[in-house]
Every structure is written in C-alpha cells, then in structure tokens.
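Hi C.,

You asked whether I'd gotten around to modeling the 158-residue construct. I have! Everything is below, sequence then structure, no commentary in between.
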Amino acid sequence: MQLLADEIGVNRATLYRWVGNRDQFLAEILWSLGEPTLQNIVESTPGAGGDRISRIVGRLCQTLVDSEPLRAYLTREPESALRLITRSASPVQRRFRDAIEALLAHEVAAGNLHPPLELADLAYVITRIAESFIYTDLITGEPPAPEKAEVTIATLLR
C-alpha cells in the first residue's frame, strides 16, 4: 500500500481513506477484473436454461484457471487470495453469487428453468461448485478442473 501511495502521490493514510484496507482494495481490484469478464461470457453464450448457465460458469471457470495474473496471485498469496475470493463475507464471492442469482432469475422468468432450490441457495451452491474446481490445486493439491464444474452444474440444473 505504501508503494501505491507513493506512486500516486498521496500519503498512506489518504490511500486507506480512499480504498479501505488492503483486503478491501484487492477485493475491488479482483471484482473490477472479474465483472467485465463474466459479462462478456454472459453476452457471448447462446442457449437457455440450466444448460446456458452451466456453460457460462464453465467458461468463466476455464478463463479464471487460464488467467496468468490470477494464478500468479494465488501462487504468491494462496491463503490471502482464497480468503478474499471464497469467504462468504467476501465482496468478490457475494457479487459473484448475486450475478449467478440474476442469471438464474432471468432463466426462471423466461420459463427456461425450474430450479430445485430457492435462487439464493442455488446461486450459493453453484458458486461453491465453481470455487471447488477452480481452486482445487490450493484445496486438495489436484489440478484445477473447470470442465467438472460445468458438468456438475449442468447435472444440478437438469
């Protein structure tokens, strides 16, 4: 944070007033990169219903697994990164869940999906499935498997 404050020509206290603590700042950066990525995937994924949602989440998982900057961050600060990205209190996870819930609501309103759970609960489960297969290397030591996230979510939404 001190390096950033120096770079933009403010003192550290001012920077903290602007962005909150380091975790809050990193969470905002992560979401500012993740949101447009998700939007591009949503806009470019055809189809309807659970199949479309599973493809969207699968494509996002693959994109995140392939992201060199994200992988570098996860390698450099695995515990901090997982806490920032996957904790329920995290603004990153909350916003991702909200985005998934909005996708689910859209498909339900269009008559393309009849979910087995309340939308908020289903969005939470989908989020956890995605996280499990994106960050598998940090959780279990196995390689990430974004394709498994897509298959699992498709199965859930059938």
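If it helps when you're writing up: The CA atoms of residues 62 and 86 lie 17 Å apart.

Thanks,
B.
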